[in-house]
Amino acid sequence: MSAKHEIESRLRAIGAPKDGEFTKHESLTSQWDKSLKKFSDQIEQYYIENRQINGVQYEMKAVVPFGSSASGLGMTGGDLDMIVCVHPPLGKKAGRLVKRRCNDILEVIFKKIQCGDMLKTRKLEEMEHIDGARVPIITGKVDGVDLDISISMTYTVSAQYLASKFIDAYEKYDRRFILLAAFVKAWQKSKKTDQNEDYFRTVFPNSCSTVLLVVFFMKHYKLLPNINKKHWAELSDARATWPRVRQGENGSFGIPRQYLANWNTCDVSVGTLFFLFIDFYANIMDFKNYRMVIEDGSLRRKGKRRTHRVVIEDVIDSDNPAKSVTEEGMFVNWLKKAITIVKSTEAEGIFDELMKDKLRDIMSYTKQEVNELRQRGLHAAPWPPVKRY
Hints:
The protein is an alpha/beta fold. It folds into 2 domains: 3-55 and 158-329, Orthogonal Bundle (Poly(a)-polymerase, middle domain), CATH 1.10.1410; 90-152, no CATH class. 44% of the residues lie in helices and 10% in strands. Strand 3 and strand 4 (145-152) form a beta hairpin. The chain starts with a helix and ends in a 14-residue tail after the last helix.
């Protein structure tokens, strides 16, 4: 079944938009595109006005931008993650030794920051070495920007390095991917406050997981290919070995555009895609019983060992990036709220309406209110709630 047929079939199940004037034989895709045109324009405008960089390519030497700043998903006000890649690596199986060595390196960096040998011309606030975290980090603010410094000791440069190449490849196949991913991240982030930060992490997927949810959704509707299979020579972890790094391997731009000449896709607006995205994860996806395999966009039943409530199997990293989401019922509830907003709000007001409400912190609920949430399938954690989730 083609992407066009898949999308039209789902919109037929949802129904036509209530507003607008449409011709008798006009497809539902076209009707929703027209209905949500102003919303689509706002999504694109948001991306243009808020992205951190424009069209910059980097050569890999000592310091290499990667992640959202290199992939195009970095938005104004975002934080900065700095990863120090250490060679020779110890690998993931070294466990405690890796953590101890990471903390030893971070302790040296932290002392140099404190005494002014590093970042001496910068304004520093709340700098802290968190050595007891699952992934030890140095955290704080540098010139008003939130900064996290961590250590990577893998045989490839880092999973984040490879992720930038995959994101760049997806964007080359379909620019709507980058627009949709950036907006979904912004919509989720709008629910966060200083008070609900811990609870927020249990309800909404982190940045990496959110991007992967967009990838999976677009593969489900056949809007993105299995690039791991199509472009293994350009995107495999063999492209991120230390010898290649020393030779100047480029970390952000994986596949030439000429490879995309024969790629066919469906003409559907980014506003309609957002609507289909929230519908997919609110009404189609069964988080309880299925895991999402990013490589081919397939759903497979969870095995007995898969105890996480939301399971994403990434191509790059075997660790489940969505394991922090333990309140997927509340996540789905927010998706359904967004569906109601898209259906009932004039197109020019959808963007602002989606950004309005904040996630209420679970610590502010009474025991009775939490029990009511639990009865509705919106809360899974035990009572009383602990401070950190």
